[in-house]
Design brief:
The chain is mainly α. Helix content is about 75%, strand content about 0%. The chain contains 13 helices and no strands.
């Protein structure tokens, strides 16, 4: 199997139920203790686990927990989207809805998300950051029915990665309490996503440099996951 093939696989965001229970319990401690051993140990104790369980389930410590928390958020986002009674039928509107769902679900743990992003932003955590971001954009595109494996595979994910990252940071920074502020920010950036399914030769040529960069990053993630 090539690294590209592994990226096209159905899922590589495996969520261990015991680890998920610890993370869910730890979320109330993260705003005070940060994403660290203290919060994980406290969450484990609250959920009926031990420090040995934490060491076994999170060998890389907080970094493992942050990446798994992102995967849990991806799964919750897709589940909520797929159970919507009136889902949008246009791709860019599906993408918009899923991003808004994810942010809405994350609102109660906004400080934990902010602290997690600050850790992922450390240069030495670049691979973990890429893995978490890739998992999110891949989950969104697949839930939107975009399972193609041609040249647009990377174009779509690279474009959405830029849109989602910018919107997430805008959401973190927003203190207005008005959802329309972040929604407007997202809508302005989704104009590019709306054009992807109609991409022609000239458009693909224009994004080729960004695509090569994304391909390199995503293949790096794929090699590590095999």
């Amino acid at each position: 199997m090539t690294s590209k093939d592994s990226l096209h696989g159905a899922s590589y965001n495996g969520i261990d139920s015991d680890a998920a229970s610890i993370i869910e319990a730890a979320l109330v401690h993260v705003p005070f203790d940060g994403w660290g051993q203290a919060a994980l140990d406290a969450g484990a104790s609250d959920a009926g686990y031990t420090a040995d369980d934490v060491a076994r389930l999170f060998p890389a410590g907080a970094l493992d927990a942050i990446v798994m928390h992102s995967a849990m958020a991806d799964a919750a986002m897709v589940a909520a989207f797929e159970t919507m009674p009136d889902r949008p039928d246009r791709i860019h509107l599906m993408v918009r809805q899923m991003i808004l769902i994810r942010l809405d679900q994350a609102a109660q743990h906004k400080e934990a998300v902010r602290r997690g992003l600050s850790i992922l932003a450390v240069p030495s955590n670049a691979l973990a950051s890429a893995r978490a971001l890739y998992g999110t954009v891949d989950a969104i595109w697949r839930a939107a029915g975009q399972t193609d494996t041609d040249i647009s595979f990377y174009t779509k994910r690279a474009t959405l990665a830029a849109v989602y990252s910018a919107t997430l940071l805008a959401w973190i920074a927003d203190t207005s309490g008005d959802p329309a502020v972040v929604e407007g920010f997202l809508d302005r950036r989704l104009r590019d996503v709306a054009q992807i399914p109609k991409a022609t030769g000239p458009l693909r040529s224009a994004v080729s440099a960004g695509q090569r960069l994304a391909e390199g990053m995503f293949q790096m993630v794929g090699r590590v996951r095999r």
